[in-house]
Amino acid sequence: MSIFAAVLGICCLCIVCAISGRNARQMELEANLGNAVESTVAAAKKEKEGLSRREFLASAVESMVNGLRTDSAVEMRIWGAEEEKGMLGMEVVEMFLYPNGKTGRTAHSRTVIYDRGKEPEGPYTVKFYRDKKDMQANAECYKTFVLEAGEKIKEPVSPVLEGREFEGWRDANDYIADFSQIVEEDIVYYGAWSE
User: Fold this and answer.
1) Do residue 26 and residue 105 come from a single domain?
2) pLDDT by residue (tens digit) across 106-133?
3) Which of the listed residues 15, 88, 118, 147 has the most CB atoms within 10 Å of its CB?
4) Are 78 and 60 in contact (CB under 8 A)?
């Protein structure tokens, strides 16, 4: 009876390992495929305007090979490739081995349409001046940061001026700085001080 229970336990363990391994591969494929297809289409539209359909597909496959991180056999099917519109539809099937040596398959598909109008530009420069007078005189900056599109700026360490208390950062329009927003343009801040 104990031998039967041990064999049954080992079988259950193998089944759980096989199912969890397949699920892990499926999640990995979904995450990698989404990023890889989006970056492929963006790169092809941004850097390689005027590509023929064949060149666009070759660029897409090359980028996908570099973007997918897997040690298994992968099969790609492309549909809906429109180089002029920046559209790419792709399905990736990954073949892998279960612990018992049998072949398993997992698949995921993704379609991306590249919208050139929403493309972030960057990089952006964010300057911090000690006070408003320095900003208006375009004096030496307290801190300068260069950010890529889509990044947020972190508030720098507050400056120190003898005999004055720092009240916070303000932008060039005298609004209180909001460091929770994504930087979408060059910004200038100055330190506000109590008198």
Assistant:
1) yes
2) 777 777 766 555 555 668 888 999 888 8
3) 88
4) yes
